Amino acid sequence: MKTQNYILVLLIAFSCAMCNSSKKEKEDKAVTQKISKTDNDKHIPLTPEDSLKMVNHTIEVKGDVEFPLQLSVDSLKKMKVVTIDDFKVVCQSGQVKKDNKICKGVLLKDILEKAKIKQDGHKDRNFYIVGRASDDYKATFSWAEIFNNPTGENTYVLFEENGKPVKSGEMILICKNDIKTGPRHVYWLKSIEIYKVK
Ligand SMILES: Nc1nc2c(c(=O)[nH]1)N[C@H]1C(S)=C(S)[C@@H](COP(=O)(O)O)O[C@H]1N2
Ligand SMILES: [Mo]
User: Fold this and answer.
1) How close is the Cα of 176 to the center of ligand 2, in Å?
2) Per-residue pLDDT tens digits for 105-160
3) From CA 17, how far away is CA 151, in angstroms rounded?
4) Which residues sit with Cβ closer than 5 angstroms to ligand 2, an ion?
5) For the CA of 188, the nearest atom of ligand 1
6) Are 22 and 57 contained in the same domain?
7) Whose CB has fewer CB within 10 Å in the chain, the N or C terminal residue?
8) Same domain, 95 and 8
């Protein structure tokens, strides 16, 4: 093969690799850019079309785990489902954003046990867990909070609010015993990432 042809093949292969990021990811990025262009503290109402683009049908459980998972509402329903009463979403400002009488979800702890964090002996406990949304909103938990603290019994992935599927996306990560529950209430949940502290 001539050098010129060889370079051409390389260029094509390279541009194909660059196109690899999924359509969904591109759409998410476009919407996120719209959000971040405006004041980050303000609640920017999205158009129904843009909101729809942020919805994920599955959440990815990944990072330092033995068994990465893709969880849908249906797969959560096959796990141990818990009922959560009187869950209020309170913003850092003190404003009550939501007041749910009854919700259904699965403990984050059960999800992490299913994925099995890659631990090297019993002193290997310094992990952090990030709940990430399509708009790149994030909440962080620690291994100790989930596995050695009452927070572990109060952190859920919700799929139902007041008898109906959740509205902003299909699954929401919540922590019921936070003082202000808004910050670690992650709607449009996309992934749960487990990383070891380096
Ligand atoms: N994906 C995502 N989740 C989020 C937010 C966000 O911007 N994106 N805002 C948080 C904040 S600041 C609050 S108070 C609660 C309620 O926000 P809402 O008023 O947008 O429903 O959700 C939290 N979860
Ligand atoms: Mo908030």
Assistant:
1) 15
2) 999 999 999 999 999 999 999 999 999 999 999 999 999 999 999 999 999 999 99
3) 42
4) 91, 182
5) 1
6) no
7) C
8) no
Is 59 found in the same domain as 33? no
Provide the residue range defining the domain that includes 36. 1-42
Q: Of all atoms in ligand 1, which is nearest to the CA of residue 43? A: 20
Measured in angstroms, how far is the CA atom of residue 161 from the centroid of ligand 2? 19
Domain count, the chain: 2
93 and 15, same domain (yes or no): no
Which residue ranges have their beta carbon within 6 Å of ligand 1?
43, 89, 91, 97, 133, 135, 137, 182, 185-188
Q: How far is CA 64 from CA 128, 142, 148, 187, in A?
A: 10, 14, 19, 23
User: CA angle at residue 144 from 140 to 149, to 5 degrees?
Assistant: 105
Here the CATH number for the domain that contains residue 142 is 3.90.420.10
Answer whether residue 20 shows pLDDT above 50. yes
Q: What CA–CA distance (Å, rounded) separates 186 from 171?
A: 9
Measure the CA–CA gap between 4 and 15, rounded to whole angstroms: 17
Residues 85, 133, single domain; the answer is yes
Residue 16 pLDDT > 80: no
Classify residue 23 as exposed, middle or buried by CB count within 10 Å of its CB (0-12, 13-18, 19+).
exposed
